[in-house]
Amino acid sequence: MSTTYSYPVIPSKLNIHDQDLKNNREKWAPVLDRFETALQDVSNEGTAASLARHQSRGQLLLLKVNRMLEIAFENDLPLISLVQSAGVFLPQQFRVFHKGGQLFRDLAVRSLHGMPSCAVVFGSSTAGGAYHPALSDYTIFVAKQAQTFLAGPPLVKMATGEVIGAEELGGAEIHATRTGLADQIASDESRLSLPESTLPAPPRYPIEDLLSLVNPDIRKAFDMEEVVLRLVDDSRLSIFKPKYGPNMLTAWAHIMGFPVGIVANQISVINPNEAAKAAQFIRLCNQE
């Protein structure tokens, strides 16, 4: 697949065979040799130093993440997190829990200030690893790969005696249909790419169909998705939580090229799941 870049290609005028350039290369050779030797010495540090460095890595990781969140907050930037985590190393939990707590606090503060955060869950995320998608504004799960739970199947078996698989306990389908944590499910990682921008386009279906779709008796329900498909550009929708609260349609689309959020109830009664779904969707629309 070819890729088009907006920057032009600048041709090089360097003559690599010039004698002066060859002399420069020869002079740099011993310097590079000394550098390679120094790198080798560093990599051969003693086991005590290696152990201490390994034990501090959990702290360094959280410090990096917290600093990134700080920069994003100061510059009003959205946050996209790629999540797959087993939580903290419990024997060292006293070193990282306060830093991990700051991460979760910052996610909540971002949401309060209208700065969107998105978590893409690629694999098993347990305990602290489950808090990250739960505190993010928008979550995408990769089907048959992503699982999120506070305790995995081995701990469930040890505590209750129940034998259950990871997918049944906290897989993408469970969170899309039962808990509502998964806002979207990607069939595989290749489906996670962003859609291309499109120009305004008329709906693919005739708007006159609405006269047939909508009953003159307004007390009779009709399919709101079919209505929306005859109103939005190219009849394209990105449906939010399609499997959770199915009687409430929530979707992003474009009308005359302008992005819009759509909320439409399919039946006259709004149930708790539908109400929670609509409230979250409206909050997301206000953040964008």
TrEMBL record:
Where is the CoA carboxyltransferase C-terminal domain positioned along the sequence? 202-288
In alphabetical order, the GO MF annotations are:
ligase activity
> Which InterPro entries does UniProt cross-reference here?
AcCoA_carboxyl_beta, ClpP/crotonase-like_dom_sf, COA_CT_C, MCCB/AccD1-like
UniProt xrefs under SUPFAM superfamilies: ClpP/crotonase (SSF52096)
Q: Which domain of life is it from?
A: Eukaryota
- Protein name per its UniProtKB record: CoA carboxyltransferase C-terminal domain-containing protein
